[in-house]
Every structure is written in structure tokens, then in C-alpha cells.
Sequence to fold (303 residues):
Amino acid sequence: MPSKSSVRRRQALAWLCATALPLLARPAAADNTSAPRIVASFSILADVARELAPAGTEVTALVGPDADAHVFEARPADGRRLAQADLVLMNGLNFEGWMERLVNVSGYRGTVVVLSEGVPTRQAGRAVDPHIWQDPALMRRCVAQLASALQQRWPAQAAEIQAREAAYLRRLDDTDARIRTLLAAVPRAQRRVITSHDAFGYFGAAYGIDFIAPQGWNTHSEPSAAAVGRIVRQVQAMGVRAIFVENISDPRLVQRIASEGGARVGGTLYSDALSRPGGPADTYLRLLEHNARTLAEALAPGP
Ligand SMILES: [Zn+2]
Fold:
């Protein structure tokens, strides 16, 4: 009969073979458990965080490209991703109203950075327009806030984060200048456009374009027949030249308004999400410029 100690030795050896050896045998490239992890609520924030975060940081978004964060339904895997995060980012202003509960049930107990804090907003009564990223000047404030949160979380990389922030702000300013050049060609009388939900108020205020939408600041409910009828009459009365579909919305509503109002669909604007990688708006800066170019091409007087 084997002694107790030899049984223990055999058990220990069996444990080593079952757990430790496969770990040792795993290729180093697949073992990224030590990489810092940032989870952002939606694709636009994830892209900006990727620009600012220290090299090697893994940044993911809960709501991916072309998806609507207003009506997102989280899966168990999203909670697990949050639980493993080192830092969590969200927009706030009730854009991702589901986020607080999801963070609570996930067990994540770290910092949640709310990028809209302290940013001046458009308001109507008690409602607030959450789409602050559509104005690069407001995004500048979010970038500063994000950089300081990253420096607090990873103080050893503070200088790297600061350098990344400065480089990104220069690119943001260049994009803003290009948008102003693109839109300068659009006459004042043509600066009136229709989208499906009211996501471009900040862009409109920054660049002098009036956006009208049958759906309000969120997409929680379908617009009423009366609201759609009102928009169709506005299209006819004001001679709106172009109506735009959005990457996160069903295009049929906008197509119907265009055909009933006698306007044409001027293209796709990226409102609340990036395009897929390789698409025309797969980074935040490309999103801004794509939208400006699409508007300018549809609204500027033809040759
Ligand atoms: Zn929206």
C-alpha cells in the first residue's frame, strides 16, 4: 500500500501536469493577461481611447460599429468583459442609460470615467442632447478629461499619455479646419438637412447647419405619424435639398420622407457609431470628415 506522503506527491504531480504545465506550454503571444484593459461603452469613445492610451493597452467597445447605443441590450459576455477591465469609459448624459446597471451587476469596482462631465450641453426642458462628440471643440474637453483619467490610472506612463494627447489634439484641430473648408462652399440658404434622429445638433451649432429630425435625441420609440407628416411638410415648404440616412438606423423612414417630400437621399451620415474597419468612418476623425464631405457634396451648388 502506498504511503500517505507518496499519494500526496502523486496528487501534486497530477495537479502540476493538469494545470501548471499547460500554462507553461502556452505560447507567450497568446498570454495577454497582463495588458491593461479599457472597456468603452461605444465605438467612438473606444477609438479616442486607443489614440491616447499607453502602447499595448487593449481597448474594446461594448456597442460596436454601426450599432445603436441608445437601445443596446447587453449579453453576459459584456458583464464579464467589464469585470476584467482596468478602466471603464462612458459618455453619460443618459446616452447609454443601461451602463450603470451593467457595471453594477458585472462586479467591476474600478473607476468609471464619464467623459461628458463639465461639458456644456444643449437642453430642452429637463432633456439633454447627449451627442457631444459631434462637435470637435467639445471632444477637445473630453480628450483632456480622458488623458487625465489615464494618467491617474497609469502614472508611470503619464509622459507618454501627454505626448499622445498633444498629437491627437493637433489632428483634431486639422480635421476641424478641413471641415470648415469643405462646408464653406455651401450657401446659407442650403444649410438645412434632415436625418432620422436628432444626433447632429452639436455639429450644426458648430458649423452653421440646421438639422431637423422626426426622432428626438434618442431612438427609444418610433416617430409618430404626425411627426413624420410635419417633417414632410417642412421638406416641401423649406425646399430641403437633401435628406440623410444614418449608419445606426433603418433607412426606410428617411427614404419615405424623401419620396413624399420630393427630396433626394444625400448619403449616409455616421451619427452614434463608427463604420466597420475599412469603411468610410472607421475612426472618430474620419467620421467627422466623412460627414462634412457628404453634407458638402449633397448641399453645394452643382456645376
Ligand atoms: Zn443618438
Observations:
- The first strand starts at residue 37 and ends at 42.
- Confidence is low (pLDDT under 50) at residues 11-32.
